[in-house]
Amino acid sequence: MTGPRLIASADDFGLTDGVDAGIVAAVAAGSITAVGVMANLVHPPALAALLRVRPGVSIGVHLNLTTGAPVSPPASVPSLVGPDGEFLPLATLTRRALSRALRRGDVAREFAAQVAEVRRLGAHVDHLDSHEHVHLLPGVFAAVIALAHRAGVPRVRSHRPRILGSVADTLRYYARHPRRVATHLAKRAFAWRLRAAGVATPDGMVAPSLLARPPAGGPLGEWRAIASALPVGTWELVTHPADLARTAGSTDAARLGELVERRAAELAALVDPGFPSMIAAAGVTLVPFTAVPVRADGASVAQEDYAARRA
What we know:
CATH topology: TIM Barrel
Number of domains: 1
Order of helices and strands: EHEHEHHEHHHEHEHHHEH
Structural class: alpha/beta
Number of helices: 12
CATH superfamily: Glycoside hydrolase/deacetylase
Distance between the termini: 37 Å
Largest sheet: 7 strands, parallel
Number of strands: 7
Shape: globular
């Protein structure tokens, strides 16, 4: 298979009942090929229902340090929780990470517990990613690489951005978004570090925000433009569908955050019967995360040595 391949991922399974219902519907429609599961929030019956809908869907652990309570006893991961035993908000966690106040042992313990929990619930875990991109934080990134090796999960999401367009389009894109030059360079460096450590990743990430010329028409129009411009390789498109009719209470509303309307629009696009055919018409093949080949080179690098040299 030489054409472009697309992993269509849905994040946040377990976040709310509405998110779970939306992801199950998108998987059933054949539009979603990989799902990120939040081990500390997921309900076992919901995960069992997801696995029944399409047994071949890729299951990843959506590593989480910012929402809900840890899988580990809170007292065993004190640098990750507040006085209530719940995870810290992202802003607080980030400050702790930047000030080196996060204990790497706490991060490693909780991440290992999250992978073990998803496996305990009957899922085969084939990749790792993270909620609110926490795996890119100082003191957390090295723990994810160690986890990939120790837990035998050799694939991790790459945030390496791919601007879709010509060279001239790319130059114009960065002229319009100069602040993204530094952040995109940092994300490319993270992707390089993953591969240098023997961790397999997709070739990069595609998103509407990375289109040189964003189209109208909502998610379906945006994804059509992505598919038509996708180069050869294996790329990941991250989505956040949710059935808002299943949203209940202030906790759900808070967890859905600013993406509420976008989540509903993405679900509508993913269950549209035209989505899979639109992807196929562009010459793109939808694939699970296991389509990312596991790299043999670098796999023997001792994680402790790598972390000491690169962290």
